[in-house]
Amino acid sequence: MAACNSMFVYHILGLASLGAVFYFSLLGEVDLRFPGLVPSSGSSSQPQDASLPFVERRGVQLFLEGRPFYINGWNSYWLMDQSVEPSSRHRVTRMFRSAVGMGLTVCRTWAFNDGDYNALQVTPGHFDERVFEALDRVVVEARQHGVRLILSLANNLEAFGGKTQYVKWAWDEGVGLTSSNDSFFFDPAIRDYFKVYLKALLTRTNHLTGVQYKDDPTILAWELMNEPRCITDPSGNTLQRWIEEMAAYVKSIDRRHLLTVGTEGFYGPTSAPDKLSVNPGHWFNNYGLDFIRNSKISDIDFASVHLYPDNWLHSANLEEKLKFVTQWVSSHFEDGDKELHKPVLLAEFGLSHLVKGFDQSHRDAFYKAVYDIAHESAKKGRAGAGAMVWQLAAEGMEEYMDAFAIVPSERPSMQRLLREQSCRLAALRYGEAEARRTLRTVCA
Fold it and tell me: Which one of 157, 186, 223, 227 has the lowest number of neighbouring Cβ atoms within 10 Å?
């Protein structure tokens, strides 16, 4: 997320077989939406059933079990970090319970922590098994609750290590070309570091299920990087080459999962003038981004977009921000239909409570505008794959909160909006009557 600058400031199964919303103890219970799952509180030498269907792409839509699949999801970047220590794991469980209670089905979270506190990758190619087991638990917990995961693989910002840590590793070892953060994208040694990490993660065998990550359908998709930017090459060529290389490498190991880039969606040098005019002021000029070009790469299955009008339009009032929301989201969904021929997911969006004059009704209006556009695209069978709020948190997580964070239990109006969107999208997937039956605890 563009507004986050520290480590603490930082997003399915189809519901055909969902008979009710199940809640779980810390040890877990069998979820009927995931047949064959046998949760364990310790290691298992016997692989668990991995025969769940994968979410797949067909044209401009996502599909699951032969039906279009629409995402109403959320971001909780901190799941792996909070799953490391036994004293904080209950937060992960509480978050999944809360999300399922609102009908949410997809969570985007970090699958990286490089050289920082509770680091997954301590040094290049060396991993902390204790933290890897924490990520294993997150995957199992998601499966138990009927939630799919989008796992982000790196960070453009310094939080949780980010590309800065990779550059520091190379520089300290005397193999780095420069100390510029953007050397992450062009330095051969750093690209090799990242590939070692990718292979280790994708081929990781979950110690609780015996299933390799690349074979686990609980994971909906991989995201190459959270908000990649390469400001030293405004032509976009350096970032484009990196995306092409890393996307091809991921697909050489894992062709079953979907893959996205993780960009914010800024239009770049190859975009038409009418698209460039959609950009919020200067927010693209030196970032090396080129949304349509980046997303057209054949190994990229769906495009991702972010939305932060508070950060991008500093002097705008609520009416102006809502107008921008419509223009920004509609433009990118249109790209999916007409240019990319792929789904487009609004992977992050939020409205800050720190803006002068903020009122909860402003955030409600903002969310509703986003959800209405996503629902309209889905209703017409077009490229809008859904939207994922940044960010949701459990109670008592003040140290992980930012200006956009929401604790659902503390915001009843927001809970209603999230539930309503879940029910609207379920109705499109199953029909009104079946949606009410399968989500009766949410859509009653």
Answer: 186
Torsion of CA 264, 103, 151, 344, to 10 degrees: -40
**Which position among 223, 264, 339, 348 bears the catalytic label?**
348
* Coil, strand or helix at 390: coil
The tens digit of pLDDT for each residue in 364-373 reads 999 999 999 9
CA distance 14 to 105: 8
CA-to-CA distance for 402 and 350, rounded, in angstroms? 11
Tokens of 169: 């590793």
Q: What's the token pair of residue 52?
A: 């769940």
From the candidates 227, 264, 339, 420, give the one annotated as an active-site residue.
Answer: 227
Helix, strand, coil tally for the chain in percent (to 5): 40, 15, 45
Cα 247 to Cα 5, 239, 348, 351, 421, distances in angstroms: 26, 12, 21, 31, 32
Q: What angle do CA 381, 384, 387 make, to 5 degrees?
A: 135
The helix/strand/coil state of 260 is: strand
Q: What is the rounded distance in angstroms from the CA atom of residue 382 to the CA atom of residue 373?
A: 11
Is 85 part of the annotated catalytic residue set? Answer: no
Query: CA 142 to CA 114: how far, in whole Å?
Result: 23
> Is residue 56 annotated as part of the catalytic site, yes or no?
no
* Chain segment 107-122, per-residue pLDDT in tens: 999 999 999 899 999 9
Of 242, 221, 216, 177, nearest to 56 by C-alpha is: 221
